[in-house]
Amino acid sequence: MPAVAKTKQKEEVAGPSDFRIGFLVHDVSRLRKTLFDQEMEHLSITRAQWWALAQLSREERPEGMLQIELARRVDVGKGAIGGLISRLEAGGFVVRTVDKTDRRAQRVRITRLGHKVLEQMTGVGRSLNGRIFADISAKDIETAERVLATMKRNIKQLIAQPGENGRQRGR
Q1: Does the domain spanning 21-160 belong to CATH 1.10.3720.10?
Q2: Which residues of 121-157 are buried (b: 16+ CB within 10 A; e: fewer)?
Q3: Low-confidence ranges of the chain (pLDDT < 50)
Q4: In the chain, alpha helices (H)
Q5: Cβ contacts of 147-153, under 8 Å, gap ≥ 24
Q6: What confidence tens digit (pLDDT) does each residue in 13-42 have?
Q7: Rounded distance, CA 63 to CA 92, Å?
Q8: d(Cα 127, Cα 132) in Å, to the nearest integer?
Q9: Quick check: 85 and 94 in contact, CB under 8 A?
Protein backbone atom coordinates (compact mmCIF):
# COMPACT_ATOMS: atom_id res chain seq x y z
CA MET A 1 0.00 0.00 0.00
CA PRO A 2 2.73 2.56 0.79
CA ALA A 3 4.22 1.99 -2.70
CA VAL A 4 0.94 3.07 -4.30
CA ALA A 5 0.86 6.24 -2.25
CA LYS A 6 4.45 7.06 -3.30
CA THR A 7 3.62 6.46 -6.97
CA LYS A 8 0.54 8.68 -6.78
CA GLN A 9 2.56 11.37 -5.04
CA LYS A 10 5.22 11.27 -7.78
CA GLU A 11 2.57 11.80 -10.47
CA GLU A 12 1.36 14.99 -8.79
CA VAL A 13 4.84 16.54 -8.59
CA ALA A 14 5.80 18.53 -11.68
CA GLY A 15 9.18 17.77 -13.17
CA PRO A 16 11.27 18.99 -16.10
CA SER A 17 9.61 16.54 -18.53
CA ASP A 18 6.22 18.12 -17.77
CA PHE A 19 7.28 21.12 -19.83
CA ARG A 20 8.23 19.08 -22.90
CA ILE A 21 4.76 19.19 -24.46
CA GLY A 22 4.72 22.98 -24.18
CA PHE A 23 8.06 23.24 -25.94
CA LEU A 24 6.98 20.77 -28.61
CA VAL A 25 3.73 22.66 -29.26
CA HIS A 26 5.70 25.91 -29.55
CA ASP A 27 8.36 24.36 -31.82
CA VAL A 28 5.82 22.70 -34.12
CA SER A 29 3.85 25.94 -34.40
CA ARG A 30 6.96 28.03 -35.10
CA LEU A 31 8.35 25.56 -37.66
CA ARG A 32 4.97 25.23 -39.39
CA LYS A 33 4.75 29.02 -39.67
CA THR A 34 8.25 29.14 -41.17
CA LEU A 35 7.38 26.44 -43.70
CA PHE A 36 4.12 28.19 -44.59
CA ASP A 37 5.94 31.51 -45.05
CA GLN A 38 8.38 29.84 -47.44
CA GLU A 39 5.53 28.37 -49.47
CA MET A 40 3.69 31.71 -49.63
CA GLU A 41 6.71 33.86 -50.47
CA HIS A 42 5.71 34.10 -54.15
CA LEU A 43 2.51 35.95 -53.18
CA SER A 44 4.47 38.60 -51.22
CA ILE A 45 2.11 38.29 -48.28
CA THR A 46 3.18 37.90 -44.67
CA ARG A 47 1.79 35.57 -42.04
CA ALA A 48 0.32 38.55 -40.17
CA GLN A 49 -1.43 39.71 -43.34
CA TRP A 50 -2.72 36.20 -44.00
CA TRP A 51 -4.03 35.96 -40.43
CA ALA A 52 -5.82 39.31 -40.80
CA LEU A 53 -7.39 38.20 -44.09
CA ALA A 54 -8.52 34.94 -42.48
CA GLN A 55 -10.22 36.87 -39.67
CA LEU A 56 -11.86 39.27 -42.10
CA SER A 57 -13.12 36.40 -44.26
CA ARG A 58 -15.14 35.14 -41.28
CA GLU A 59 -16.89 38.47 -40.82
CA GLU A 60 -20.55 38.12 -41.79
CA ARG A 61 -21.50 41.81 -41.85
CA PRO A 62 -21.24 43.23 -45.39
CA GLU A 63 -19.78 46.50 -44.05
CA GLY A 64 -16.81 44.62 -42.61
CA MET A 65 -15.15 44.58 -39.22
CA LEU A 66 -14.12 47.47 -37.01
CA GLN A 67 -10.37 48.02 -37.25
CA ILE A 68 -10.03 47.85 -33.45
CA GLU A 69 -11.83 44.48 -33.40
CA LEU A 70 -9.47 43.15 -36.07
CA ALA A 71 -6.53 44.33 -33.92
CA ARG A 72 -7.91 42.30 -30.99
CA ARG A 73 -8.46 39.20 -33.10
CA VAL A 74 -4.96 39.21 -34.59
CA ASP A 75 -3.48 40.25 -31.23
CA VAL A 76 -1.69 43.43 -32.30
CA GLY A 77 -1.84 47.02 -31.09
CA LYS A 78 -3.74 49.92 -32.64
CA GLY A 79 -0.62 51.30 -34.31
CA ALA A 80 0.50 47.99 -35.78
CA ILE A 81 -2.93 47.17 -37.20
CA GLY A 82 -3.00 50.46 -39.10
CA GLY A 83 0.22 49.63 -40.95
CA LEU A 84 -0.89 46.06 -41.57
CA ILE A 85 -4.19 47.21 -43.05
CA SER A 86 -2.44 49.87 -45.14
CA ARG A 87 -0.21 47.20 -46.73
CA LEU A 88 -3.22 44.95 -47.38
CA GLU A 89 -5.11 47.90 -48.84
CA ALA A 90 -2.18 48.81 -51.10
CA GLY A 91 -2.19 45.23 -52.42
CA GLY A 92 -5.93 45.41 -53.13
CA PHE A 93 -6.77 42.71 -50.55
CA VAL A 94 -8.95 44.90 -48.31
CA VAL A 95 -10.81 48.21 -48.33
CA ARG A 96 -11.23 50.58 -45.42
CA THR A 97 -14.26 52.79 -44.86
CA VAL A 98 -15.46 55.13 -42.13
CA ASP A 99 -17.99 53.55 -39.76
CA LYS A 100 -21.51 54.91 -40.30
CA THR A 101 -22.31 55.22 -36.59
CA ASP A 102 -18.91 56.42 -35.31
CA ARG A 103 -17.04 58.65 -37.77
CA ARG A 104 -13.79 58.15 -35.78
CA ALA A 105 -13.87 54.38 -36.34
CA GLN A 106 -12.69 52.55 -39.45
CA ARG A 107 -14.23 49.41 -40.91
CA VAL A 108 -12.19 46.91 -42.91
CA ARG A 109 -13.62 44.56 -45.51
CA ILE A 110 -11.91 41.83 -47.53
CA THR A 111 -12.07 42.23 -51.33
CA ARG A 112 -12.53 39.63 -54.06
CA LEU A 113 -8.77 39.63 -54.58
CA GLY A 114 -8.31 39.07 -50.84
CA HIS A 115 -10.67 36.08 -50.98
CA LYS A 116 -8.81 34.74 -54.02
CA VAL A 117 -5.44 34.93 -52.24
CA LEU A 118 -6.96 33.36 -49.15
CA GLU A 119 -8.19 30.44 -51.29
CA GLN A 120 -4.65 29.95 -52.63
CA MET A 121 -3.28 30.05 -49.10
CA THR A 122 -5.85 27.52 -47.93
CA GLY A 123 -4.78 25.19 -50.73
CA VAL A 124 -1.14 25.58 -49.74
CA GLY A 125 -2.10 24.91 -46.11
CA ARG A 126 -3.94 21.72 -47.03
CA SER A 127 -1.00 20.52 -49.10
CA LEU A 128 1.42 21.26 -46.28
CA ASN A 129 -0.80 19.48 -43.76
CA GLY A 130 -0.77 16.40 -45.98
CA ARG A 131 3.02 16.39 -45.89
CA ILE A 132 3.28 17.38 -42.21
CA PHE A 133 0.87 14.63 -41.12
CA ALA A 134 2.63 11.96 -43.19
CA ASP A 135 3.13 8.77 -41.15
CA ILE A 136 0.66 9.92 -38.47
CA SER A 137 -2.54 7.90 -38.14
CA ALA A 138 -5.96 9.55 -38.24
CA LYS A 139 -6.53 8.25 -34.71
CA ASP A 140 -3.36 9.94 -33.45
CA ILE A 141 -4.34 13.20 -35.15
CA GLU A 142 -7.79 13.03 -33.51
CA THR A 143 -6.17 12.41 -30.12
CA ALA A 144 -3.75 15.31 -30.58
CA GLU A 145 -6.60 17.63 -31.60
CA ARG A 146 -8.64 16.61 -28.56
CA VAL A 147 -5.69 17.12 -26.19
CA LEU A 148 -4.76 20.50 -27.68
CA ALA A 149 -8.39 21.68 -27.61
CA THR A 150 -8.61 20.75 -23.93
CA MET A 151 -5.32 22.53 -23.20
CA LYS A 152 -6.62 25.61 -25.03
CA ARG A 153 -9.88 25.58 -23.05
CA ASN A 154 -8.00 25.19 -19.76
CA ILE A 155 -5.62 28.05 -20.60
CA LYS A 156 -8.52 30.33 -21.57
CA GLN A 157 -10.23 29.55 -18.25
CA LEU A 158 -7.03 30.28 -16.34
CA ILE A 159 -6.57 33.59 -18.17
CA ALA A 160 -10.15 34.60 -17.32
CA GLN A 161 -9.66 33.83 -13.60
CA PRO A 162 -8.30 36.50 -11.30
CA GLY A 163 -4.62 36.08 -10.50
CA GLU A 164 -3.01 36.34 -7.07
CA ASN A 165 -3.15 40.15 -7.17
CA GLY A 166 -6.90 40.12 -7.87
CA ARG A 167 -6.46 41.35 -11.45
CA GLN A 168 -7.44 39.28 -14.45
CA ARG A 169 -4.49 37.42 -15.94
CA GLY A 170 -3.21 38.49 -19.33
CA ARG A 171 -4.28 42.11 -18.95
Answers
A1: no
A2: beebbeebeeeeeeeeeeeeeeeeeeeeeeeeeeeee
A3: 1-2, 4-10, 171
A4: 2-12, 20-40, 47-57, 67-74, 78-90, 112-132, 138-160
A5: 148/25, 151/25
A6: 555 567 888 899 999 999 998 998 888 888
A7: 17
A8: 9
A9: yes
Nearest to 52 by CA among 31, 72, 30, 34: 72
Q: Where are the domains of the chain?
A: 21-160
Instruction: Indicate if the alpha-carbon torsion angle 124, 128, 129, 130 is positive or negative.
Output: positive
Cβ(135)–Cβ(39) under 8 Å? no
DSSP 17: G
pLDDT tens-digit readout, 104-113 = 889 999 999 9
Beta bridge partners of 94: 110
